[in-house]
Design goal:
The chain has about 375 residues and is mostly beta strands. It has one helix spanning about 255-260; strands spanning about 5-10, 25-30, 35-40, 45-55, 60, 80-85, 90, 95, 100-105, 110-115, 125-130, 135-140, 150-160, 165-175, 180, 185, 190, 205-210, 210-215, 230, 240, 260-265, 285-290, 295-300, 305-310, 335-340, 355, 360-370. Belongs to the aldose epimerase family.
Length: about 375
């Protein structure tokens, strides 16, 4: 049985005209029977912290984040945030849906990223406690960031005594909607299993349940031949490898372009279906392990892909949760369960189209433990 506490972390700023603002930003803390805890905030429905024991029982916060809520505003790394309406990239910010061309903001080189400059990641969500869970809700207006259709989304967080953090995303078009939209939601949490302020994660070991990945062009848009086999490439994590073992392989153009790992893998066993809405089975996707602390986190999801991003551009982001400590590149690794990048322009990928009357539902589980 979780103990859930709430505290006001601050207030949104009042606009220069005196209208709007002054809304509470709330920090929620979920503590299980073992004293392990998760911290969340209604700003961007974000994960602020996850405090779990190492193999000796010493507690540490293993999630990167900030010590003040204002640092989450428009931060480059999207630290711990719920991102959407479409996570990852859409080529040139354009797609066609049932004959209608939609132009989105260009906010990542020539492409659209994570729902746009504001997206869902830079909004204040409504928060509430429902029994043992914390639920955040947000309503996106028709046309917001260029996306068609008014959309209500929820991010539900559950934390159990086995130290599993379960995230469920829901979305549904407004009742009056007559046209479909696209949806792809994920969480952009970064992990460092030695503690968020302990430096590089390149010594962490990663295992992926994925025999295929999506090679990209230099702007991180999947190539025509994606997904492709990982066989014989530094993308092969079917057996455990340290993140730093091959990350700087200059002979691999994919790693050169990404300044490290920033790629999507197709999860083995994902049903060959035409829509991401049709998979309801949680599939094992990844395990991250630190020999130093003995901590691991196992990832399972209903989504078809998992984006591994080794925090290649963390330098210069706002101060961390520890006074005097600033994050450097590769101090954390994100494991983002999601649909494939640029799916709206790839009819060969499982569709991300949500029609009126349908409910989008996706699950991401992070199970923490030690050995």
């Amino acid at each position: 049985m979780n103990e859930i506490t709430q505290q006001v972390w601050g207030f949104t700023p009042v606009s220069p005209s005196g209208e709007g603002g002054g809304e509470p930003v709330v920090l929620y803390t979920m503590t299980n029977a073992n004293g392990a805890s998760v911290q969340l905030t209604n700003y961007s429905a974000a994960i602020v912290g996850v405090t779990v024991p190492d193999r000796l029982g010493k507690m540490a916060d293993v999630v990167l984040g900030y010590d003040r809520w204002q640092s989450y505003i428009a931060d480059g790394p999207a630290m711990g945030k719920s991102v959407g309406r479409y996570a990852n990239r859409i080529a040139k910010g354009i797609f066609t849906l049932e004959g209608n061309t939609c132009q989105l903001a260009i906010n990542n080189g020539p492409n659209h990223l994570h729902g746009g400059p504001t997206g869902f990641a830079n909004r204040l969500w409504e928060g509430r406690v429902e029994g043992d869970r914390v639920v955040f809700g947000y309503h996106a207006a028709d046309g917001e960031e260029g996306y068609p259709g008014g959309l209500y989304v929820e991010a539900c967080y559950d934390w159990d005594d086995d130290n599993t953090l379960a995230i469920t995303y829901y979305a549904r078009l407004d009742d009056e909607a007559t046209q479909p939209t696209i949806v792809n939601l994920t969480n952009h949490v970064y992990f460092n299993l030695n503690g968020h302020d302990s430096g590089s994660v390149l010594g962490h070991t990663l295992t992926l349940k994925a025999s295929r990945y999506l090679p990209t062009d230099e702007t991180a848009i999947p190539l025509a031949e994606a997904p492709a086999s990982v066989e014989g490439t530094p993308m092969d994590f079917r057996t455990p490898h340290q993140l730093g073992e091959r990350i700087d392989d200059a002979s691999c153009q994919q790693l050169v372009w990404g300044k490290g790992y920033d790629h999507c893998w197709a999860i083995d066993g994902y049903p060959e279906v035409d829509s991401v809405l049709k998979n309801t089975t949680l599939l094992p996707a990844a395990e991250l392990y630190s020999e130093e602390s003995g901590r691991f986190v196992k990832v399972a999801t209903t989504q078809p892909g998992i984006q591994i991003y080794t925090g290649n551009w963390l330098s210069g982001c706002p101060q961390s949760k520890s006074e005097g400590y600033a994050y450097s590149d590769r101090d954390g690794v994100a494991m983002e369960c999601q649909a494939f990048p640029n799916t709206p322009n790839r009819p060969d990928f499982p569709s991300v189209v949500l029609h009126p009357g349908e409910t989008y539902e996706q699950h991401i589980n992070y199970e923490f433990g030690t050995r």
